Amino acid sequence: MRQVEPPTKKPATPAEDDEDDDIDLFGSDNEEEDKEAAQLREERLRQYAEKKAKKPALVAKSSILLDVKPWDDETDMAQLESCVRSIQLDGLVWGASKLVPVGYGIRKLQIQCVVEDDKVGTDLLEEEITKFEEHVQSVDIAAFNKI
């Protein structure tokens, strides 16, 4: 059997090395085109930054459904609701309310509110409502939804 030697690679001459350097796989043949592309990119980035600056920032809000429980069946629920709605805080908006029967003639006030998360916390809201000690026994959060 005759052995075949693998072909040997001849050393590259400087002229052949320059040929490989001339190949641009990304298509930037001209420096002027690169400058124009850079200017266009800068212009678009500037326009995007201006557009983003004009856009208002999103405010995180939550919808909370509160159960406000009275002491007994003789508590004036209209007075209780007016006390709760009298709480005015920055970032708090009161919504609809209804009276829900609990038992033995006692009804609780179920009231909806929308709060801005960074301004009004649930603890603060509960503290403010429970300050009306003559009307309010306790406050529970029935539902809490992010908007």
Number of helices: 4
- Number of strand elements: 4
Strand content: 25-35%
Rounded Rg: 36 Å
Query: What ranges have pLDDT less than 50 throughout 5 or more consecutive residues?
Result: none
> What is the percent of helical residues?
25-40%
The shape is elongated
| Terminal residue distance | 83 Å
- Widest sheet: strand order? 2-3-1-4
Average of the residue pLDDT scores:
85
Order of helices and strands: HHEHEEHE
Pfam family, one: EF1_GNE
Protein name: Elongation factor 1-delta
Family: Belongs to the EF-1-beta/EF-1-delta family.
InterPro entries: eEF-1beta-like_sf (IPR036219), EF-1_beta_acid_region_euk (IPR018940), EF1B_bsu/dsu (IPR049720), EF1B_bsu/dsu_GNE (IPR014038), Transl_elong_EF1B/ribsomal_bS6 (IPR014717), Transl_elong_EF1B_B/D_CS (IPR001326)
What does this molecule look like?
- Keywords: Elongation factor, Protein biosynthesis.
- GO terms for molecular function: translation elongation factor activity.
- The chain has 147 residues and is of the alpha+beta class.
- It has 4 helices and 4 strands, in the order H-H-E-H-E-E-H-E.
- It has helices at residues 14-22, 31-54, 77-85, 122-130; strands at 61-70, 92-103, 106-116, 136-146.
- It has a 4-stranded antiparallel β-sheet with strand order 2-3-1-4, covered by helices on one side.
- It is elongated, with a radius of gyration of 36 Å.
- The mean pLDDT is 85.
